[in-house]
């Protein structure tokens, strides 16, 4: 009979190997899913993972998209991972992303049509602040009233979505837009735009911010006392309390950081790739970032790589839906599957598989 | 604005309809949590149930088969969660989230081609002269069988948990899995059964949304109903009666908010639409401010991993 035996310490080798194993298993299972949809699985996998990067026809368009899509994912996931490590579950990043975009855009639009580049940093600050404030709601409810932060942060996503819809047709609507919902186009306004920094790479300020966030998170977690407290609180909450870690401050810090980073992702998106506040401006980066955080094993460098891979599935998914008629929803299911496999193979990190008969009468 | 247009009879009647999906899902999650498992995938199981039920009902023309398929679909999906958390010992919070993300993708994949179709209608239960009584007739006796099933299940859940040996075992597993294991109870098996039951109930709730309440299939149509069901379990202090109260309270808010929208209140529609979520948060805060989770009645081993070492 097959049994599991807990390892004295988690296996380092397996902790590096499991993400790759999970990706391999997802590719196999995804291939089966595409076959079930009546598509050639090899062609589908090739279109998703290979063509966006190397196909001579599409690569010129697809390659820059990689950083455009990975930027917000990495930015949000880096913040989420800090909390997940400490056992603080912020799953409402989608809401903080929306609010960041709204507050940042509102600050910018209030100053329209001024033409000074100082507006852009102001908007970025307002975006980070907006996301931070939205994340402070579950943080304060958690620390003051011990309310479950998972449910509150998630329910606030629906509140934020309604707020976005109301703003897009109300306060932030473009007065010269002929009554159509949606704000002025921020990416065409020189004072507020978040342009591509190096032509043909897709690099914009949000991507720069994402890589800075990765570096800071790495330093925080490995070289700084606060990072040590985060890890300690996640692995041994009781020991953390004896070591003088203040749980309330940790909740506020983790939720605040992840909220601010999600807000940043929102404002960089709305001033750059998205261009304007519209009713369906958010596309689920806040939720996909949860997968990215786990796929990156909650480690900043891992998250950067995982973000790029997840961005690739987005772009490849679009290409597959365009070329092979694979529904966009299949990619969403594919991404969900990846998280399943990741969680399943993670057992190998913490447990050893033991074959043979169990001893009787212990 | 004309508030007199809101009829109390219709309000209460539609309240019951609005509350039923959440009541079903929350009752299922109650059993799951009583067994010590926190499944955050209710939203994913609900929406999978919604499309499984919808597709089956449309293809067969029989809503009852639709509800059966929804329960089956929800249970199958929940077993993915069950296998991962109970056998592969994965983190319950993360796995539950994965279930929701996967369920949302899977449902919109299955739902391709079902957008804009009307499902076969679920008939009102004919209760003869009872339905003709003024007010009470329409409010209490004018519903379809699922509403009565959900009310029956509230009582059945209470009876199961409080008055049966199996219910006692389930609660023992949730309060202390090590003690239950030492007594010879099969912790994993009990939990897997509870998880499958929770999935089936969430599936039923989802199907009620797509077959009766809306009735249509649209992507992401559950719109947070699964999360609200989770909140209602906390609100109920893990008691079936509390789940009923919470679900009907929430149904009332939803229906009132929709009626106010129709009556043309001077508030933008979006603000009214967000009110159920805000009220759910407010209720959660009030509940949690009253005491620790433990004193509110949460099972002691809720969300903890169980690995039998000997």
From TrEMBL, chain A:
<protein>
    <submittedName>
        <fullName>ABC transporter permease</fullName>
    </submittedName>
</protein>
<feature type="transmembrane region" description="Helical">
    <location>
        <begin position="96"/>
        <end position="112"/>
    </location>
</feature>
<dbReference type="Pfam" id="PF02653">
    <property type="entry name" value="BPD_transp_2"/>
</dbReference>
<keyword id="KW-0472">Membrane</keyword>
<feature type="transmembrane region" description="Helical">
    <location>
        <begin position="329"/>
        <end position="348"/>
    </location>
</feature>
<feature type="transmembrane region" description="Helical">
    <location>
        <begin position="274"/>
        <end position="296"/>
    </location>
</feature>
<keyword id="KW-1133">Transmembrane helix</keyword>
<feature type="transmembrane region" description="Helical">
    <location>
        <begin position="250"/>
        <end position="268"/>
    </location>
</feature>
<keyword id="KW-1003">Cell membrane</keyword>
<keyword id="KW-0812">Transmembrane</keyword>
<feature type="transmembrane region" description="Helical">
    <location>
        <begin position="118"/>
        <end position="141"/>
    </location>
</feature>
<feature type="transmembrane region" description="Helical">
    <location>
        <begin position="16"/>
        <end position="37"/>
    </location>
</feature>
<feature type="transmembrane region" description="Helical">
    <location>
        <begin position="203"/>
        <end position="221"/>
    </location>
</feature>
<dbReference type="GO" id="GO:0005886">
    <property type="term" value="C:plasma membrane"/>
</dbReference>
<feature type="transmembrane region" description="Helical">
    <location>
        <begin position="66"/>
        <end position="84"/>
    </location>
</feature>
<feature type="transmembrane region" description="Helical">
    <location>
        <begin position="303"/>
        <end position="323"/>
    </location>
</feature>
<dbReference type="GO" id="GO:0022857">
    <property type="term" value="F:transmembrane transporter activity"/>
</dbReference>
<dbReference type="InterPro" id="IPR001851">
    <property type="entry name" value="ABC_transp_permease"/>
</dbReference>
<feature type="transmembrane region" description="Helical">
    <location>
        <begin position="150"/>
        <end position="169"/>
    </location>
</feature>
From TrEMBL, chain B:
<dbReference type="GO" id="GO:0022857">
    <property type="term" value="F:transmembrane transporter activity"/>
</dbReference>
<feature type="transmembrane region" description="Helical">
    <location>
        <begin position="37"/>
        <end position="58"/>
    </location>
</feature>
<dbReference type="Pfam" id="PF02653">
    <property type="entry name" value="BPD_transp_2"/>
</dbReference>
<keyword id="KW-0472">Membrane</keyword>
<keyword id="KW-1133">Transmembrane helix</keyword>
<keyword id="KW-1003">Cell membrane</keyword>
<feature type="transmembrane region" description="Helical">
    <location>
        <begin position="221"/>
        <end position="238"/>
    </location>
</feature>
<feature type="transmembrane region" description="Helical">
    <location>
        <begin position="271"/>
        <end position="289"/>
    </location>
</feature>
<feature type="transmembrane region" description="Helical">
    <location>
        <begin position="189"/>
        <end position="209"/>
    </location>
</feature>
<feature type="transmembrane region" description="Helical">
    <location>
        <begin position="245"/>
        <end position="265"/>
    </location>
</feature>
<keyword id="KW-0812">Transmembrane</keyword>
<feature type="transmembrane region" description="Helical">
    <location>
        <begin position="135"/>
        <end position="161"/>
    </location>
</feature>
<dbReference type="InterPro" id="IPR001851">
    <property type="entry name" value="ABC_transp_permease"/>
</dbReference>
<feature type="transmembrane region" description="Helical">
    <location>
        <begin position="96"/>
        <end position="115"/>
    </location>
</feature>
<protein>
    <submittedName>
        <fullName>ABC transporter permease</fullName>
    </submittedName>
</protein>
<dbReference type="GO" id="GO:0005886">
    <property type="term" value="C:plasma membrane"/>
</dbReference>
<feature type="transmembrane region" description="Helical">
    <location>
        <begin position="6"/>
        <end position="25"/>
    </location>
</feature>
<feature type="transmembrane region" description="Helical">
    <location>
        <begin position="64"/>
        <end position="84"/>
    </location>
</feature>
């Amino acid at each position: 009979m097959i049994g599991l035996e807990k390892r004295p310490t988690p296996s380092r080798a397996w902790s590096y190997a499991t993400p790759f194993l999970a990706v391999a298993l997802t590719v196999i299972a995804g291939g089966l899913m595409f076959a079930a949809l009546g598509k050639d699985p090899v062609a589908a996998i090739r279109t998703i993972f290979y063509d966006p990067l190397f196909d001579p026809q599409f690569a010129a368009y697809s390659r820059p998209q990689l950083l455009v899509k990975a930027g917000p994912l990495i930015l949000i996931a880096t913040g989420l991972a800090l909390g997940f490590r400490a056992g603080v579950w912020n799953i409402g990043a989608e809401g903080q992303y929306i609010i960041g975009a709204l507050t940042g855009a509102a600050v910018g639009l209030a100053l329209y049509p001024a033409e000074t580049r100082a507006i852009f940093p102001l908007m970025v600050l307002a975006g980070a602040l907006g996301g931070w404030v939205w994340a402070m709601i579950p943080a304060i409810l958690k620390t003051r009233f011990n309310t479950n932060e998972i449910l509150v942060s998630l329910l606030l996503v629906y509140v934020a979505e309604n707020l976005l819809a109301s703003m897009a047709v109300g306060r932030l609507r473009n007065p010269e837009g002929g009554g159509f919902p949606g704000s002025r186009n921020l990416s065409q306004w020189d004072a507020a735009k978040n342009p591509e920094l190096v032509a043909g790479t897709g690099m914009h300020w949000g991507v720069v911010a994402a890589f800075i966030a990765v570096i800071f998170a790495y330093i925080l977690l490995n070289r700084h006392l606060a990072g040590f407290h985060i890890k300690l609180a996640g692995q041994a909450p009781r020991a953390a309390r004896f070591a003088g870690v203040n749980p309330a401050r940790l909740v506020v810090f983790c939720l605040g950081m992840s909220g601010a980073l999600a807000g940043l992702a929102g404002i960089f998106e709305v001033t750059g790739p998205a261009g304007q506040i519209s009713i369906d401006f958010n596309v689920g980066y806040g939720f996909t970032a949860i997968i990215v955080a786990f796929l990156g094993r909650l480690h900043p460098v891992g998250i950067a790589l995982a973000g790029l891979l997840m961005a690739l599935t987005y772009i490849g998914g679009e290409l597959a839906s365009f070329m092979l008629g694979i529904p966009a929803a299949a990619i969403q299911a594919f991404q969900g599957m990846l998280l399943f496999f990741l969680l399943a193979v993670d057992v190998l990190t913490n447990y050893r598989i033991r074959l043979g008969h169990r001893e009787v009468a212990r | 604005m004309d508030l007199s247009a809101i009829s109390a009879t219709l309000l209460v009647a539609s309240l019951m309809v609005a509350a039923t999906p959440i009541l079903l899902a929350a009752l299922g999650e109650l059993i799951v949590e009583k067994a010590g498992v926190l499944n955050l995938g209710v939203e994913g199981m609900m929406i999978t149930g919604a499309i499984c039920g919808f597709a089956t009902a449309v293809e067969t023309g029989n809503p009852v088969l639709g509800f059966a398929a929804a329960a089956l679909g929800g249970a199958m999906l929940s077993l993915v969660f069950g296998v991962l958390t109970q056998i592969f010992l994965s983190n319950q919070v993360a796995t539950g989230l994965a279930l929701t993300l996967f369920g949302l993708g899977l449902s919109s994949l299955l739902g391709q081609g079902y957008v804009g179709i009307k499902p076969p209608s679920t008939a009102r239960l004919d209760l003869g002269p009872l339905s003709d009584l003024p007010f009470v007739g329409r409010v209490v006796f004018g519903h379809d069988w699922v509403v009565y099933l959900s009310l029956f299940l509230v009582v059945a859940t209470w009876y199961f948990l409080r008055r049966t040996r199996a219910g006692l075992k389930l609660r023992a597993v949730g309060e202390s899995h090590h003690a239950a294991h030492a007594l010879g109870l099969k912790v994993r098996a009990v939990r897997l059964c509870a998880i499958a039951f929770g999935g089936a109930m969430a599936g039923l709730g989802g199907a009620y949304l797509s077959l009766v309440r809306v009735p249509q299939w649209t992507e992401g149509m559950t719109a947070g109903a699964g999360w609200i069901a989770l909140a209602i379990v906390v609100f109920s202090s893990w008691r079936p009666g509390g789940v009923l109260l919470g679900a009907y309270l929430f149904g009332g808010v939803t229906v009132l908010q929709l009626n106010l929208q129709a009556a043309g209140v001077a508030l933008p529609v979006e603000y009214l639409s967000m009110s159920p979520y805000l009220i759910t948060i407010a209720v959660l805060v009030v509940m949690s401010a009253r005491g620790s989770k433990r004193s509110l009645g949460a099972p002691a081993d809720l969300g903890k991993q169980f690995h039998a070492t000997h």
